[in-house]
Amino acid sequence: MYGKTAMETFKIDEVVCLVNDFIAATVKVMYEKDETRKVTLADIFVYDFMWSMNSRDANILNNFPLLQEHLDKIGSLPQIKAYVDARKPTEA
């Protein structure tokens, strides 16, 4: 159950610790009252990708209301909005 070798034991410990870290982070996000602190790195990556796609074709998210909602939500956060408004346009 705990591994027959030191390497197997290490891998099991690694997975157990990873899951514990994930649970701890998830609980923090679930009970956070400040919406801006609920944003994860994954949210920002999805926002960045969708923003890039949307800037090339404004209709690209028409059939994906949840992605559009995500783009609007993350894009309206004060820190994100200020950054996007201030950055120079990227030329293709």
From TrEMBL:
Domain GST C-terminal stretches: 1-92
MF term (GO), any: glutathione transferase activity
GO biological process: glutathione metabolic process
Residues passing through the membrane, by range: none
InterPro entries membership: Glutathione-S-Trfase_C-like, Glutathione-S-Trfase_C_sf, GST_C, GST_superfamily
Pfam families xrefs: GST_C_3
Signal peptide segment: none
Superkingdom in the source lineage: Eukaryota
PANTHER family the UniProt entry points to: GLUTATHIONE S-TRANSFERASE
Name of the protein this chain belongs to: Glutathione S-transferase
Organism: Elysia marginata
